Amino acid sequence: VFGTSKIPLKDLPTLEVRLVDAVPEAFQLVLSYIYTDRIDPLKKIKEPSNNNVVLLMMDVYRLAVQFHMRRLEHLCVHYLESTISIDNVLLALRNASQLRLYFIKEFCMRFTVKESNYNTIVMSQEFETLDQPLMVEIIRRRQMPQLRSADSSQLDTTGTSLEQDMEVFLRTVGKEFCDVTLVLDGTRFPAHKAILTARCSYFEGMFRSFMPENNVVTITIGEMIPSRQSFESLLHYIYNGDVKMPPEDSLYLFSAPYFFGFTNNRLQAFCKQNLEMNVTSDNVIQILEAADRIQALDMKKYSLNLIVHNFPKRSAFVATQALQKETSLEWKNAKSFEEIPGNPAYPLIGSSYEIFTKEFDVGRMHWTQKKYAEKFGPICRFVIPGLPTMVQVSDPTEIEKIYRADGKFPERPIIETLKKYREDKMDGVENFGLLLTSGNEWWTMRAKVQQPMMKSQNMLKYIPTMETVSVEMVERIRAIRDQNNEMPDTFLNEMFKWALESVALVALDVKLGCLRGHLPADSDPQKMIDATVSTFALMQELEFNGPHFWKIFPSKKLKQLFEVQDSFVE
């Protein structure tokens, strides 16, 4: 149809395969087996009686034969052999005969003519309704000498597991079905979006929102470019769960689970075990340096302990010197903290004396930060009395480096005003939330929600209900705009109403009705909006507008903030 033209994959028509005489429930089980390497027929039957299960598994067996899935054939036969009984053998025999499933039919025949089963089956009402050819065949089989015939042990049980199939798919078969190219330091690796998306939330987010038009993705792990061998090991883990790799690959991939967003820490646990089992006196220094460079804190701690406990003091000193050695030109050229540009600092007011000028607006801090960047460059510092000296970074590349260097337990400046309120007013509360914690305490809370947050299927559940809020917001905009299609001066409050409605729906599963017409000033939603706006304004003034005298004695602004926060608690 398209000739020799190269058509983007997304523009190609969806391939449709018609399965003649396939039972939908049976095909769903086959599809589930293809994806998971497991099969459970009871999940697909609303009323799981013994007879229904037998008939369903016979349909699955027929599809397995049709699709040349030998391992699934064996599983179906094994399941049927353990399920077929005196009560359902004739039903299975009739169905196997109609579907031409000769192996199953032969098993049912042998089961029927057994000495212990024959009389009971022949005297049953089901036997009376059996098709005449099958009756005759059973009676003749009973009269014949019982010779040893093919049994289930002679069934060809060869076949491959899901892991084996995926390994072959990655190496050979799957190359003609690739739809994305991963580039590592100039080397191209063909891959498959569906598999990468299923295994890594990093690729899922990229392919949903930031997919390059040429379907080429450059691979790094943070700032680190892994070796080709280690990346091949990573692909083997993604495709077929293989964790066999040399120790040097484990060091490269130690931080990969965090960066790519795997659903569990199996790869990291293996990498740690692999490294610990293979750290020797010959490579411990190199592993320590590499662990420090990629912020593999657990491995760094293990290497340091190994040096301290197993090497003489001189060796430990040499190791420390090696770790502190300037290994890159970037580090050699780094300036001292005192050389970071910024305004001169003075007693009491520090270097932030712009806050006392008319041009300063605490509600537009980004403009102040922009002016600093234009005046002093992408990295500058300023001093606010009562706070640690702050460094402002406006270069995205440098910002990424800072976040990558945080490690597992980042240290974040907390919101002092909110912490003071909760310490003074909320007795008995041990945990103040993510905004007011850092380090190990922060990670303990974060780890509990990280995996659910990284799964897009959890977010997709909210799309239908969130869409109703979006539709209400659009209708609200249409209702309040003037004849020139411009919004009123109170439009910011409408945005707050939309935000509150969305947050309540996700966090509390409740619709507050913020967007339905005019919201009275004394209504609870509007009071919450007013309190939130006041909270942010007061926090900005207290945190950034001059010395923190409120830490010594309660200021007027601090009392106002406490009153606003009290309204939330009440």
Automatic annotation (TrEMBL):
A single GO molecular function term of this UniProt record: monooxygenase activity
GO cellular component: Golgi apparatus
Record carries keyword Oxidoreductase: yes
Species, as recorded: Artemia franciscana
Name of the protein this chain belongs to: BTB domain-containing protein
Keywords associated with the record: Kelch repeat, Monooxygenase, Oxidoreductase, Repeat
Pfam families in UniProt: BTB (PF00651)
Xref: PANTHER family: LEUCINE-ZIPPER-LIKE TRANSCRIPTIONAL REGULATOR 1
Residue ranges of domain BTB in the record: 178-247
InterPro entries in the record: BTB/POZ_dom, Cyt_P450_sf, LZTR1/Attractin, SKP1/BTB/POZ_sf
Gene3D superfamilies: Cytochrome P450 (1.10.630.10), Potassium Channel Kv1.1, Chain A (3.30.710.10)
